[in-house]
């Protein structure tokens, strides 16, 4: 059957684009055996027989081996010719010829009929002009330091294989720096200043489609400000030079420090001791949506320090580093941290926390948690002073006065009522005081129950007897009592308590908040009929220094025969308090106020009505006022006990100590010039005498030496004279006197000449 051959192809193809031509057979039998031949400008290009065997001409074998040329049979009636990259050499007329064949007896193909297609002309289309657009992904040309910068370079025109290079021109510079590049085959390279091609690189270049190239700087720096330039290149086959297009865009990287502000606040800058106070470090920035990590450093300057010390450091990766300046600070501080706020809640404030605080904030970029990036910006807050003061005391004590009248030798209690006290970790200390009935009697401290409930007796109540008589008790939180056993005459007087409020702080110190004094309780004894009377005659005593003096105290009556008496001697000097010197008890025992007084004082009873205080070797400091207090003792109760039931006090005796007459040794020692004369003058005289004797010795020795020399010279002269006469006689005899002319030298010189010969 007859058939027709047609060819289909695009008449105009852009250079570098693929071209496919299809040769179709129309008509013919059901399963014809066809073979096809392709022609270009009437020159055979390729041949494919009915068995599918392909034959290429020499020029097209090389292109086929490079994957640029392909001939195939699509179906029994369709043949295909593909050129994957059309060049100028491919422009021209294409034609295909199809022959129907059958197998001959000899095995060869026999052509039954052959048809040709009309020519199909292919023209190259000239490359259209391209344009390049550079933009940012978020449409903003200003970013914050550390923020990601994404630049897009989009190329217009026909699809083609393109290469791209990104360049950066820093601010105030003209020389561009290479950032990154991607070739047509997808090979990428980075500039020397933008890291290496690895997973931690800060710069990435991607090709999102054939015409779009994306440059991303994940963490920008200030140096990234400037102009970014995108250069797109296109290379076609057999073209000497690349075609390129360029577009620029300016970018500003704003420093984080430019909008970083740090402030420090506290709702309680004046905090009470043991209370809680807070510190808030607030960060204000213009890039809150970036959620940059912060490192907050809390610093503290103590009241007497000139430098700030580290309290704690909250790093941007979440760790907390504590300083060593305040050891207890970590245990009582709660730390809370949000994106732009750091808060400290300090419990149980002590005076150690009083001082100046400040916080230092460091800003890092978002990728620093993974890349260990450097600090981007820092700012420090203004200093904030925290003062720690004592809380106001709310202590109130019952101040009403009362009178107690009891029988002698009975027991009594004196109360100290607390009406109100402060709250918190508080303790109370109670001190009991006593003042005797006598005029101008001082207040004596009986005992103190301190804040730890330890009882300490006063100086005048250190004796065993008085410790047994007075006891303190804490009945409840609001009631303290002083127990007095076997009340006697000497216990009459006024009593009151002083209450101190103490606050315990966590640093181990006690702080006194306040002190209140109760009302007076006057203790009286019911009359027993006994009364001691002492002679009220005052007097003066003058005594010389280092001598003895006796001070007397006399009763007007000796009282009942069943009574015993005790006496206490007191001394007072101007500008000093009264002092108990010695106590002669009713049983005759002596008790001294100080152990050192035993050698200088002696107290005794010279008669039933007279008491004597003897002072030995009186010193100038013993001057002052002396007086006695005599108490009457009687047996009371069952079993019987000696009880002081009455007492009286004498008038003051003023003792004046006169300086003693100075002795001759004391006069010498008291005169400094005389002392110098007696010790220095003999030394000077002895020194001069020694020097004189030394001079005389030297002079005598010199005279002795001169005398000895004269005697030797005289003896030598006598010897020489005799020798000279003998020599003269011998020379006359021998006729040798011509050797020494007479009168030429002295006899001594002649003797020396002869000795030399």
Please, could you describe this protein's structure?
Residues 1-107, 127-252, 255-381, 391-500, 527-630 form the Ig-like domain. One of its GO terms (cellular component) is membrane. It comes from Balaenoptera physalus (Fin whale). InterPro entries: Ig-like_dom, Ig-like_dom_sf, Ig-like_fold, Ig_sub, Ig_V-set, IgSF_V-set/TM_domain, Immunoglobulin_dom. This is Ig-like domain-containing protein. With 757 residues, this protein is mainly beta. The chain folds into seven domains: 3-125, Immunoglobulins (Immunoglobulin-like); 132-254, Immunoglobulins (Immunoglobulin-like, Sandwich); 257-389, Immunoglobulin-like (Sandwich); 400-436 and 443-498 and 513-525, Immunoglobulins (Immunoglobulin-like), CATH 2.60.40.10; 539-658, Sandwich (Immunoglobulin-like); 668-708; 717-757, no CATH class. It is 13% helix and 47% strand. The chain has six helices and 53 strands. The strands form ten sheets. Strands 2, 4, 5, 6, 9, 10 and 11 form a seven-stranded mixed beta sheet that branches. Helix 5 (672-734) packs across helix 6. Residues 724-757 have low confidence and may be disordered.
